[in-house]
């Protein structure tokens, strides 16, 4: 069965391509290489022994998308990762985010709705919950007004998919990720942030390797056990596996609804200081850091209730925070030739 993976050379996309190929799916990747590199293909081939079809294509070009689906009329499903994800950038350039994350989704769905049946897996985010009132967060928690244009694109994206599924042969699973970290155990693929990393774990590993002077912890006066923010850090391989299980659920008609939503997290909240401790243990070295002001828009705490994903999707995480951090560190060392 042929599956299109948009953004398939990115961090989560590349790990998902590996898991799809290992499960026997035929993969076609579209990526515009705006935040990834063609080199990633080599890593995918090294792990799986299979070369996915790759087309450099920008999903904002509607005619190119139409043309792609003419050439690949046998695509049975799409896992849609391609999107921009930097919160700060989205505040500065909202239209870039609406164009990249919404127009592209519309063009894809316009093609898929012409098919009698199509499977669609969407990369959503726990950002849709904002600061949830109770922890851990269940899928039925209230959706809060988005705190950034990026967050808004995820909320609007979910709504668009639900509307289209109602009137077409499209069946969709919306996956709300918590905080993906780590790299493949083979160290053939991993996270490759361009420029200064905005996310915690790549900033930590780049500091550990000497690329950054020190980590700035954004606030230690939050109402949490140690004062730093709490998140749910999930190993990217666990996350990738969930996509394959979600796709198989649609293919095997096990879905209970045309639209289903699952949280993808570990269920455990970890503070910034706990992540640092895990890094220090994995690397055997101290991490230089300082406490600075809070970052605007950060929620205090967010971790997943995993019951629905465990019991209904039939998936659960296997790796610990320590394993995630250790693999991220191994990857950083490899990338920097150390
Ligand atoms: C962020 C986005 C989220 C998005 C996700 C995508 C914000 C507020 N949230 O999640 O909407 O879906 O990225 O990847 O931007 N931290 C530091 N120092 C740093 C970096 C981070 O202390 O240099 C702290 C943050 O305050 C936070 C935690 O580390 O408490 C995790 O931060 P990050 O990796 O940016 O993830 P989120 O903020 O959870």
From TrEMBL:
It comes from the Bacteria. One of its GO terms (biological process) is galactose metabolic process. SUPFAM superfamilies: NAD(P)-binding Rossmann-fold domains. CDD domains: UDP_G4E_1_SDR_e. Residues 4-326 form the NAD(P)-binding domain. It holds the Pfam family GDP_Man_Dehyd. Gene3D superfamilies: NAD(P)-binding Rossmann-like Domain (3.40.50.720), UDP-galactose 4-epimerase, domain 1 (3.90.25.10). GO terms for molecular function: UDP-glucose 4-epimerase activity. Keywords: Carbohydrate metabolism, Isomerase, NAD. It catalyses: UDP-alpha-D-glucose = UDP-alpha-D-galactose. Its cofactor is NAD(+). Pathway: Carbohydrate metabolism; galactose metabolism. GO terms for cellular component: cytosol. Its EC number is 5.1.3.2. It is an enzyme of class 5 (isomerase). Belongs to the NAD(P)-dependent epimerase/dehydratase family. Homodimer. This is UDP-glucose 4-epimerase. It comes from Flavobacterium gawalongense.
